[in-house]
Each structure stands twice: as structure tokens, then as C-alpha cells.
Amino acid sequence: MNKSNILVIDDEPQIRKLLEITFESQGYQVLLADNARTGLAMAASHKPDIILLDLELPDRHGLEVLSDLKIWFHQAVLILSVIDTEDIIVKALDAGADDYLTKPFRSAELIARVRNAIKRNQVVPGEPIITCNDITIDFVSHRVTKNQEEVKLTATEYKLLSLFMMHVGKVLTQPFLLQAIWGSSGQTEAQYLRVFIGTLRKKIEDDATHPKHIITESGIGYRFM
User: Fold this and answer.
1) For tag attachment on the chain, is the N or C end more exposed, with fewer CB atoms within 10 Å?
2) pLDDT (average), residues 89-116
3) Comparing 123 with 113, which gets the higher pLDDT?
4) Are 44 and 68 in contact (CB under 8 A)?
5) Distance CA 52, CA 197 (A)
6) Backbone dihedral region for residue 74 (phi beyond 0: left; psi -120 to 50: alpha; all else: beta)
7) Are strands 5-9 and 29-33 parallel, antiparallel or unpaired?
8) Does residue 36 carry a pLDDT above 70?
9) For residue 97, how many other CB atoms are within 10 A of its CB?
10) Which residues pair with 9 in a beta bridge?
């Protein structure tokens, strides 16, 4: 039986009930909160494996709750909201949300995203070797292989792949990637990011025109699958 705990912070009774039924049927233990204050208290006392957080709460905005959580809560937070505007999605992801899904949602997709987010947070930090399907990166030797064949990457391509593979399944926004690769001057390098994504795809994808690893999240950034 699945032993993972899920905390739902959402003020809509129908959504809370739906999520409770959906995840309990999958073996998860579900905790419910209808406002920010109760949700934060339950997160501290129950230490869930993941939090499903609505943005439009009666007592505080979800982005403020997310900001508070990220100070001390080190497990996954998935935003579940009717808000689908690009700027809010980017703000949530930049603030530390592991994923963002808009309502109405497909239950199977939500279950898959929750499962993957929990798995990502169970990976031991500092793991020297990470394998994702046919790609392996060795952080000690800086060696990358695809189907056990070495792949030669430039320094920037290696940095990008390292970021992606340390955050498998998570959307990495364009501002985050620019800052991580080029530092404080990164926001002026957006055109180069697209170029390096393209060259990296040619080296690690079976078909760079139909990528299966580096997926574009339109207007937001990229997700490594």
C-alpha cells in the first residue's frame, strides 16, 4: 500500500472531496485544509510528502503561502488552480513550486504528476550518478552517456543537462535557466538559451524535431522527462 501523505489546501469542498476520493483510491493518505492558516499548521505537524495548493484561498493568496512554505518545507508543492495566466504560472514556478496544473484537471495526469514529484524528492541529494531512461550523467567524471555510448557536450550543454536531470519532471522557467547558466547577466541571453537547447536536443534525442526528453512548456520554459 502507498504510504505517502498528501496535504490538500483548497477552499472548494467539491475539489477537496474529489481529491480525497481520487488519491485514497490509489492508496495515498489524504489530509485536507480549507484555508492557508490551517494548511500551514497541518504541513508543520503532519509533514506530508507533497502539498496540493490552491492559489485563491479565503485568508491569504497561495503565492504568499508558497513563499512561507519554501522557507522550511522541503517536500514537493504542486499548484492546482483555475488561474492559467502565464505570469502567475511563471511566478509560482520561480517561487519554488514543483509543478503547476490548472483546473479543471484530468485525474490520471494529476496522479502521475504527484507520483513523479514525490519520487523526485526521494532522490538522495548529491547523488553522483543519475540515470533517466537511456541517458546517464556522472557528476564526478562529468561524463554523459546515451544507451551506454558517450555523448560529447560543450560546457554550457552540460550545465543545462545537469539542471534538467537534477529536476526531472519539473518545469524550469526560462528566467531560472538563464540565471543558473549565465548569472546576473543571463536575462539578455534568451536567444542563446534556445540555441543551446536545440544543440542539446540534437545530441540526446532520438529525433530532435520530436523531442521526448526536453519538452517545451510554451511561454514558460522546459521540462525534462
Assistant:
1) N
2) 88
3) 113
4) no
5) 30
6) alpha
7) parallel
8) yes
9) 25
10) 33, 53
C-alpha 204/C-alpha 216 separation (Å) is 15
Residue 127: the pLDDT is 62
Containing H/E element for 21? Answer: helix 13-24
Residue 203 C-alpha cell reads as 545530441
Distance of alpha carbon 113 from alpha carbon 171, whole angstroms: 11
pLDDT band at 184 (very low <50, low <70, confident <90, very high): low
Q: Is the pLDDT confidence value at 8 over 70?
A: yes
Percent of the residues in the chain that have a pLDDT greater than 70, as a whole number:
93
Q: Which CATH class is domain 129-224?
A: mainly alpha
Q: How much is the average pLDDT of 162-176?
A: 88
Smallest Cα–Cα separation from 77: which of 106, 57, 58, 101?
A: 101
DSSP labels, 181-204: HHGGGGGG-HHHHHHHHHHHHHHH
Quick check: bond before 104 cis, omega within 30? yes
β-pairing, 50-53 vs 5-9, is parallel
Residue 185 has pLDDT above 60, yes or no: no
Distance CA(58)–CA(16), nearest Å, equals 15
The residue ranges of every structural domain in the chain are: 5-122, 129-224
Mean pLDDT of 86-114: 89
DSSP 23-57: HHTTT-EEEEESSHHHHHHHHHHH--SEEEE-SB-
